[in-house]
Design a protein that fits this description.
211 residues, alpha/beta, Rossmann fold, 13% strand, globular, transferase
Length: 211
C-alpha cells in the first residue's frame, strides 16, 4: 500500500522554543471520540516535551466542533479575567512587616508570583469532522473554520486549527496515528502542540516590538 504523503507531519520550526513559561488551553469536541482522544494525547505529549508544565495545560471539552469557536473565545476571556484578579492579590496579601522582620513567616512575594494565574498564551481547538451523506459536513467545516479564525483575530491570542476534515473514517484514524490499514499514519496532535508553543513564543516577541 502506497504511503499517503499528506499524512506526514509538520517539520521542526526554524528555531527551538521553550514552553516552560506558557499556559496553553486545549478545547476538544467529543464526536469521533477514539480519534479525539489520540489527538489530544498527542498534543499534550508534545507540549510537555517542549517544557509546558502540567498545571499550565488546561483541557476543556464541548459537544461538537461547531461549539469550538465559542468555547475558545470564552476560555481566552476567562484566562485574562483570572490574570487580572490574580495580579492585585500579590500586593494586597503581602505582609509589609515581613520586609523588615526576618522572624515573620510570610510567604515570599516571588513564590506567590510563581503560582499566580496567567492568561492563555495559545489555544488548541481539536475536532474531527467526517463526511456523511448530507450537506452537514460542509456547513460545519465552513462555520468552524471561519469561527476559529475570527476568535484569534478578535482576541489577539493564537488559536491552532486542530480540526480534521476527513472524507472517510480511515483518513481520520491515520491522521491521529491510529490507522488500521497497514499504516498507523501520523498523529497531527503533535504538530498542533508544536505550533501552539511556536506561536506563543513568536507572538510574545512580536507584541513587544522584537521583530
Amino acid at each position: 500500500m502506497a504511503e499517503d504523503k499528506t499524512i506526514k507531519g509538520l517539520g521542526a520550526p526554524p528555531k527551538a522554543h521553550d514552553g516552560s513559561a506558557f499556559r496553553i488551553a486545549i478545547v476538544h469536541a467529543r464526536w469521533n471520540d477514539d480519534v479525539i482522544k489520540a489527538l489530544v494525547q498527542g498534543a499534550v505529549d508534545k507540549l510537555k516535551a517542549l517544557g509546558v508544565k502540567d498545571e499550565n495545560i488546561v483541557i476543556k471539552t464541548v459537544p461538537g466542533s461547531y461549539e469550538l469557536p465559542f468555547a475558545c473565545k470564552k476560555l481566552i476571556e476567562g484566562g485574562k479575567a483570572q490574570a487580572a484578579k490574580a495580579e492585585p492579590s500579590l500586593i494586597s496579601t503581602t505582609n509589609l512587616l515581613s520586609l523588615v522582620d526576618d522572624e515573620r513567616s510570610a510567604t515570599p512575594v516571588g513564590d506567590k508570583a510563581k503560582t499566580a494565574t496567567r492568561e492563555f498564551d495559545a489555544v488548541i481547538a481539536i475536532g474531527v469532522l467526517i463526511k456523511g451523506s448530507t450537506m452537514h459536513f460542509e456547513y460545519i467545516c465552513d462555520a468552524t473554520t471561519h469561527g476559529l479564525m475570527r476568535v484569534q483575530l478578535d482576541t489577539g491570542t493564537p488559536v491552532v486549527f486542530g480540526v480534521l476534515t476527513a472524507l472517510t473514517d480511515d483518513q481520520a484514524l491515520e491522521r491521529a496515528g491510529i490507522g488500521r490499514k497497514g499504516t498507523k499514519g501520523h498523529n497531527h496532535g503533535e504538530d498542533w502542540g508544536l505550533a501552539a508553543v511556536e506561536l506563543a513564543a513568536e507572538a510574545a516577541q512580536w507584541g513587544q516590538g522584537n521583530i
